[in-house]
């Protein structure tokens, strides 16, 4: 099992050897196997803890940029996803653990927003889609009445995105964002194009549905936590080669400890917390 002392030494020496990624991987495997860490995940996920920690290790080993982040920050970010009961498989699009300036942070995807909304039991329908050239017939900004004709699609060019939800009590809300509006929002609130460059469509949908739910949706405790976490954006300029991304998330940074030899597994477990809304 990796001790905190060896963990600090490995982090300090990362990048000095060609074997750094495999050393980091061993460190992550040791941390995830420690009783203190497993106990925290078992408290949240029960019998699914082993499966979830295996997905963390798989993600970590497959992402070179993530291997440059502090291992404990990766686990702490994954704990947020576990608490919200969302998978971190990047192919599913519910939530991600993303490197950011030497640490990892949790990021909620638009599918994660939809999933959390549906769990409230208050939503009859909820969706966000692309609007292609020719489909938009009219949109009234005041009444938010939108007319779409999917048979009039002229090309695969996306001109905007529309979000919609209907509550079980009959309340409905429709929003429409042109591609230009989303681009302006991106330029205003994002200082790096990393996330948008990887999947502009997913980020655009997330922008639309997050703003729609935050303004007019019914928010459960989990939804409130997710919205606040996602809106506490860390916005800084980093080069893409350094793993810089715009993360619309919040996390608890690990303190630098001088006496690393005396830290116990219980103290490591205490670091696996995140700020509640």
What is the fold's blueprint, element by element?
Blueprint (H helix, E strand, L loop, with lengths): L3 H9 L7 H14 L1 H11 L3 H14 L8 H13 L11 E6 L2 E6 L1 H10 L3 E10 L3 E4 L6 E3 L9 E10 L4 E7 H11 L4 H5 L1 H17 L4 H11 L33 H6 L7
Antiparallel strand pairs: 1-2, 3-6, 4-5, 6-7
Helix pairs in contact: 1-2, 2-4, 3-4, 6-9
List keywords for this structure.
277 residues; alpha+beta; three-stranded antiparallel β-sheet; two-stranded antiparallel sheet; 11 helices; 44% helix; globular; disordered N terminus; disordered C terminus
Tell me what you see in this structure:
The structure is a single chain. The protein has 277 residues and is an alpha+beta fold. The strands form three sheets. It has a three-stranded antiparallel sheet with strand order 3-6-7. The chain has eleven helices and seven strands. The longest helix has 17 residues, at 200-216.
In short:
This protein has 277 residues and is α+β, with helices and mostly antiparallel strands.
């Amino acid at each position: 099992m990796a001790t905190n002392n060896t963990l600090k030494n490995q982090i300090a020496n990362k990048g000095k050897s060609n074997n750094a990624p495999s050393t980091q991987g061993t460190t992550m495997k040791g941390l995830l196997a420690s009783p203190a860490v497993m106990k925290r995940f078992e408290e949240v996920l029960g019998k699914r803890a082993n499966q979830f920690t295996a997905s963390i290790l798989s993600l970590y080993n497959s992402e070179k940029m993530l291997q440059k982040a502090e291992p404990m920050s990766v686990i702490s970010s994954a704990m947020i996803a576990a608490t919200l009961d969302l998978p971190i498989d990047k192919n599913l699009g519910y939530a991600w653990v993303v490197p950011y300036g030497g640490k990892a942070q949790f990021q909620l995807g638009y599918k994660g927003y939809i999933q959390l909304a549906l769990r409230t039991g208050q939503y009859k329908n909820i969706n966000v889609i692309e609007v292609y050239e020719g489909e938009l017939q009219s949109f009234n900004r005041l009444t938010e009445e939108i007319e779409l004709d999917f048979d009039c699609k002229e090309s695969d060019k996306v001109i905007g995105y529309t979000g919609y939800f209907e509550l079980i009590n009959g309340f409905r809300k429709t929003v429409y964002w042109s591609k230009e509006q989303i681009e302006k929002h991106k330029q205003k609130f994002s200082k790096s194009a990393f996330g948008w460059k990887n999947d502009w469509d997913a980020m655009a949908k997330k922008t639309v549905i997050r703003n729609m739910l935050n303004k007019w949706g019914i928010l459960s405790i989990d939804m409130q936590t997710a919205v606040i976490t996602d809106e506490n954006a860390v916005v800084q300029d980093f080069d893409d080669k350094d793993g810089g991304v715009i993360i619309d998330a919040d996390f608890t940074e690990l303190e630098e400890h001088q006496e690393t030899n005396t830290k116990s597994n219980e103290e490591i477990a205490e670091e696996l917390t995140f700020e509640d809304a």
